[in-house]
Design goal:
The complex is a heterodimer. By secondary structure, chain A is an all-alpha fold. Chain A is built from 16 helices and no strands. Helix content of chain B is 69%, strand content 2%.
Chain lengths: 354, 515
């Protein structure tokens, strides 16, 4: 990254203008949609607008996907660990939330604690195999662990809790964030959690631990030679990633009221991988933009094309790979200097011709 | 391979443990049961191996994880089925296919011609794009108007399912060929030929300046002439050819169908590598996304052309006899009556599924092994798997080898699909299950190790069949009266567990070398 050293150091807000603007736009979004629909902001506030409620729901799904993809980007894009078992983290969060709320009627605060604990245990399970296997073998072993978890969830013996192959149904959601009646509050909560994790991740990547993680991605042998115990750093990234993904699962379980066993399958991991690849590997912003692009593309195509949607989807992925070689954000960062210079040249040309 | 017992102790212990496991499993069954289980395991293993070996060759040499390999397997099954059950569609498709292909056989001539053109100005660029656009426009105009007899997905009475059923009963009655209505045959043939020549020429001008033009030999021209003439002949003798194929001995037809499928697969692989995979060698992880996208496209294309319902493929006549003397009790009986089943230790064994497929698998294993060990190409491939940059530095045209290997890999997957179609049936999801099995087999055997792919596939096939068998007879747990019957979800789980177990002991697989 090229840093402009000519300008004096800016304050925190100025440095994060883009983020602040995004938050502002996203906060106003339900109300603007409400105005278009013809319902006043007060009505939107009271969750009475139909379209704005629908848009909020779509946005909440994007936020959940973005949190999940963010956690995958930390593991894959920043630390360089290709895991194919990432959906296990998400499904653990979702299923544990569902089971605790439904079968044990645990209060939400305690549920969150349980989920966080389970996420740490999950990370430790992956950590067990971490020093043994590397690269593509790590991907396959994690795929194996996640498959066992998937089969466990689908098994009939645990059907009383997990609902076997039907999945968890009718999870009671706490009244104050009930997605049906209090959707706007849920929307802001999901947005807040997303922003929180994004800021934590940005801080993590620029922290000394995060820099070592990047070094491990670039060349693990060299990081070892410099005296870093790479296992500890990888485990730290894995734990943070696991916690984030589990929280995404928790929000998913409360929002959807159902959890399907597909959330533990390979397809869910591949989805996160696709989102990160669309956005740009290792860019963090890319995970958020990729999530929005992926979900909106999927939604739009399914709505307007129906059957052939995944055909078009596949074609679009291939076009993205061929024409946006490093994902949306990655390519933008590479080209932004060129674009700026080209713009300046164009302006100079126009001025000269005057 | 020199055996070093001390160094390789974990490896030998694991292999020994697996052997003991299978022997104990076999001891728990009756003789006929374990023979059947063994043969079924070999059969599943062979199909898995055909996919896994191509995957492993491609991954080893090109570093491409081709997630579309399972889709290729599925497409192979569907192509073989079409040639076998609907020869009329195949004959109708033959002419446009060959004509479109013929222009590209002259690429050496085109490259030479493109170098001869004046290098000045934008003429080159204009010519290239005009040629490309005109060529593709001609194709878009002609191809939808070209009459091809095909089933109507919307109309169920004409669906592939019906045709499979009729073919199985021997009652197949193909619909009459469609006449040329919207376009005259002469215009169609000449137009397609011209479109192909133009497109091939325009495509060959890309990057022609930097490359050394390959020498033009008579081989190119002969191939071009052969393809064109065959294409035209197929059009002229459309109906006789169709009735000839329909009336043919089904064993021979099956062989033709398999070869057509493999040829199409090799072509598809070659085109895929040259157009889509080649620009991405510098960005390995994006190949994953590309092949995933291709896989989605392939599945959707199959759904659009053949529809969603599953259907079967009748077995060729050599393996379909059920009359007198069947099930056969000896090899001689089998040979004279073409029985579909044979009695072995009082167990009925299906000849196609449990004897023919493993034999083909073994033949392919031996063939590729000889190719890898005894030919110049094999030497380059082995060297490339070890150190690609070094091979490039030694002045070998790696690009061409890459293309060959990718095409071969896809061809093997297609062969697997075609072979599996009569025993497994055809469905839209057959590729996904198989690619997972193949990945697991490769992980067990060693990702880039060719014998490892065979061993891993065998282990996966055997383990699955053993678990399925014990699902029927049950495992008595010692000191209790409980009989544990493995449920169907445990079949994939068992292979996954085996993979995790092997990888934790030997991170590079059973036969993989330490990197």
């Amino acid at each position: 990254m090229i840093k402009d050293t000519s300008k004096p150091r800016q304050n925190y807000f100025n440095r994060n203008q883009g983020l602040a603007m995004t938050i502002l736009v996203l906060s106003l979004l339900p109300f603007v949609v409400g105005l278009f629909e013809g319902s006043s902001p007060v009505q939107v506030w009271l969750n009475e607008g139909g379209t704005s409620k629908f848009i909020e729901g779509l946005a909440i799904e994007i936020f959940i996907l973005a949190i999940f993809a963010l956690s995958y980007d930390l593991l894959f894009g920043i630390t360089g660990l290709l895991s194919l078992g990432h959906s296990m983290f998400f499904a653990t969060g979702a299923y544990l939330t569902g089971i605790l709320l439904k079968n044990f009627e645990t209060p939400l605060g305690l549920t969150i604690l349980w989920v966080l604990g389970a996420a740490v245990i999950n990370a430790l399970i992956f950590g067990l195999v971490l020093p043994r296997v590397k690269g593509i073998t790590f991907a396959l072993v994690t795929l194996g662990i996640a498959s066992v978890f998937h089969i466990l969830i689908m098994s009939r013996e645990l059907g009383d809790f997990t609902g076997a192959d039907v999945g968890l149904q009718r999870i009671p959601s706490p009244a104050f964030i009930n997605p049906a009646t209090e959707r706007l509050r849920f929307y802001f909560l999901a947005l807040a959690i997303l922003v929180f994790f994004f800021l934590v991740y940005k801080r993590f990547v620029s922290s000394p631990v995060g820099r070592v993680c990047v070094a491990i991605r670039e060349n693990e042998g060299r990081a070892l030679m410099l005296g870093y115990n790479t296992f500890v750093f990888k485990l730290a990234a894995l734990t943070l990633s696991s916690i984030t993904a589990s929280v995404a699962g928790l929000i998913h379980a409360i929002y959807q009221p159902i959890v399907s066993p597909n959330t533990a399958g390979l397809g869910y991991t591949i989805m996160a991988l696709l989102v990160v690849l669309i956005g740009g590997v290792g860019t963090l912003n890319g995970a958020l933009i990729g999530a929005a692009v992926y979900r909106l593309l999927d939604f739009g195509l399914r709505r307007y094309l129906g059957e052939v949607a995944s055909f078009v989807n596949g074609t679009i992925y291939i076009l993205i790979v061929l024409f946006l070689p490093y994902g949306i954000v990655g390519t933008w960062r590479l080209k932004s200097l060129d674009i700026r210079q080209g713009w300046k040249r164009l302006l100079g040309y126009v001025q000269k011709s005057k | 391979m020199n055996i070093n017992l001390k160094k390789d102790l974990p490896r030998w212990l694991t292999l020994f443990g697996l052997l003991v496991f299978f022997v104990i499993a076999a001891r728990g069954m009756e003789t006929k049961d374990w023979v059947i289980t063994l043969l079924r395991g070999l059969s599943v293993g062979s199909v898995t191996f055909l996919v896994a070996s191509g995957f492993s060759l491609i991954f080893g040499l090109l570093d491409v994880l081709n997630m579309a390999h399972g889709t290729m397997f599925m497409i192979g099954a569907y192509i073989t089925w079409t040639v076998y059950v609907r020869p009329d569609t195949f004959v109708d498709l033959l002419t446009p296919g060959l004509l479109l292909l013929s222009g590209f056989t002259l690429s050496a001539v085109w490259k030479r011609l493109a170098r001869g053109l004046k290098q000045k100005g934008n003429w080159r660029v204009i010519l290239r794009w005009v040629g490309l656009i005109v060529g593709i426009a001609a194709m878009i105009y002609i191809l939808p108007r070209y009459p091809i007899t095909i089933w109507d997905v919307g109309n169920y009475s004409q669906s592939p399912v019906t045709y499979s059923y009729l073919a199985d009963q021997g009652l197949i009655n193909l619909p009459p060929g469609l006449p040329f209505e919207e376009i005259s045959p002469l215009v169609a043939v000449l137009g397609l030929l011209a479109a192909s020549l133009l497109t091939a020429f325009s495509l060959s001008t890309f990057g022609a300046r930097s490359q050394v033009a390959p020498p033009v030999s008579w081989k190119n021209l002969i191939l071009f002439g052969f393809l064109t003439v065959t294409g035209v002949l197929a059009l002229v003798f459309n109906n006789p050819l169709t009735s000839f194929l329909t009336g043919m001995n089904t064993t021979l037809l099956f062989t033709i169908a398999l070869s057509v499928g493999v040829l199409a697969g090799v072509l598809l692989g070659s085109v895929m590598e040259a157009t889509l995979i080649r620009p991405l060698y510098s960005r390995p992880i994006y190949q994953l996304m590309l092949t995933l996208g291709l896989s989605a496209i392939g599945v959707e294309a199959v759904r659009a052309i053949w529809g969603r319902p599953e259907f079967v493929m009748p077995k060729p006549s050599l393996f379909a006899g059920v009359g007198d003397g069947c099930p056969a009790s000896s090899i001689a009986d089998l040979w004279t009556n073409h029985c579909s089943t044979i009695l072995l230790f009082d167990g009925r064994i299906r000849v196609y599924n449990e004897i023919f497929i493993p034999l083909v698998g073994l033949t392919v294993l031996a063939g590729i092994w000889i190719l890898l060990q005894r030919s110049r190409l094999g030497m380059i491939i082995r060297a490339g798997v070890q150190d690609r940059e070094m091979v490039e530095a030694l002045g070998i045209n790696v690009q061409r080898v890459f293309n060959t290997v990718f095409a071969t890999g896809v061809g093997l997957a297609v062969l697997g699909g075609g072979l599996a179609a009569p025993s497994m049936g055809l469905s839209n999801v057959m590729g996904e299950t198989l690619i997972l099995n193949a990945l697991i087999a490769l992980a067990i055997g060693g990702l880039t190790n060719f014998p490892g792919a065979a061993l891993g596939s065998l282990l996966v096939g055997l383990l699955q069949q053993v678990i399925i068998k014990y699902g029927a007879i049950g495992i008595p747990i010692p000191f209790t009266d409980i009989v544990f019957k493995p449920t169907p979800p445990l079949v994939p789980a068992s292979t996954v567990l085996l993979m995790v177990f092997v990888l934790l002991i030997l991170p590079n697989g059973l036969l993989g070398k330490k990197e």
